[in-house]
């Protein structure tokens, strides 16, 4: 293990420079044929411009055969960037698509069993709604539950509420709940929690808009006379692939809106996104105004 550590280096791509990455790659392997360098979340792959990106791009054309350089990026990489194209040209790009239901539910239940825990369908759906579909996050939360629930064999709702850290998507559910009941102060507080946890303004606008679209779909099916189970079946299939809990939440929330209000709120999201990107309004103020406008009943 000690020898392995000498030939492995993890670099934080959000704080590094091209020179630091190149220097790591130029270090010769010690008593080994290869050296592994992993750059995590390099800013140039996430749409954010890096000043020395061109230097790194040119280096990739002449990287030594005894160096294995891996760029690990969470989220969607910007495939239009020169650095992405250089990586693809000189190496290989692999996209790990997140699991969808029912595969995600099966994988999660199986992982719980590895830790000697059972979780029923209701609790499993609730757990996944809170955590999201990132396997690393799911694994971390399962380990936490397994460690703190002691000799208990079955995971309960109370344990999930007490121990699990909600994902941004779940907090957005709560945010939209507050908006739908016109609780402006609560909605702004939840927005503050999301922003202070490091969530991007554009990511939040996208999540809010997504939930509005789900409500629009649910509202449309409801007005056509569909039952909850029928709507869940329709939206679980392609191209939506929505989790049944997300559909139930959308059905419940949509009851507090008219179709006109939902379309208006979707327009508010688009206007906020456009205004921030064009510099007409600051990011935080823009998303705060979005929430305030959506809390107004018209």
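^ Assign residues to that structure.
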């Amino acid at each position: 293990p000690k020898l392995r550590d000498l030939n492995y280096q993890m670099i934080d791509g959000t704080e590094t420079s091209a020179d630091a990455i190149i220097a790591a790659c130029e270090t010769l392997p010690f008593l080994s044929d290869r050296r592994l360098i992993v750059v995590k979340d390099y800013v140039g792959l996430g749409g954010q411009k890096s000043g020395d990106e061109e230097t790194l791009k040119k280096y990739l054309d002449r990287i030594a055969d005894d160096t294995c350089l891996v760029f690990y990026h969470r989220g969607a990489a910007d495939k239009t960037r020169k650095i992405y194209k250089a990586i693809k040209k000189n190496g290989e790009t692999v996209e790990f698509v997140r699991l969808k239901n029912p595969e995600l539910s099966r994988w999660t239940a199986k992982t719980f069993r590895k830790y000697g825990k059972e979780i029923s369908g209701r609790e499993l759906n609730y757990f996944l709604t809170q955590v999201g579909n990132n396997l690393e996050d799911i694994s971390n939360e399962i380990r936490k539950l397994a460690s703190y629930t002691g000799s208990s064999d079955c995971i309960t709702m109370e344990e999930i509420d007490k121990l699990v850290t909600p994902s941004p998507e779940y907090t957005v559910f709560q945010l939209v709940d507050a908006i739908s009941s016109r609780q402006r102060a609560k909605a702004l507080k939840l927005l503050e929690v999301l922003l202070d946890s490091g969530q991007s303004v554009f990511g939040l606008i996208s999540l809010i808009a997504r939930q509005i679209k789900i409500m629009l779909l649910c509202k449309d099916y409801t007005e056509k006379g569909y039952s909850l189970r029928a709507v869940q079946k329709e939206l679980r299939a392609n191209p939506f692939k929505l989790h049944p809990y997300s559909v139930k939440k959308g059905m419940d929330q949509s009851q507090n809106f008219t179709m006109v209000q939902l379309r208006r709120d979707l327009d508010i999201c688009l206007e906020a996104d456009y205004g921030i990107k064009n510099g007409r309004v600051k990011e935080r103020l823009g998303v705060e105004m979005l929430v305030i406008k959506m809390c107004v009943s018209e």
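Strands lie at 8-12, 35-40, 67-72.
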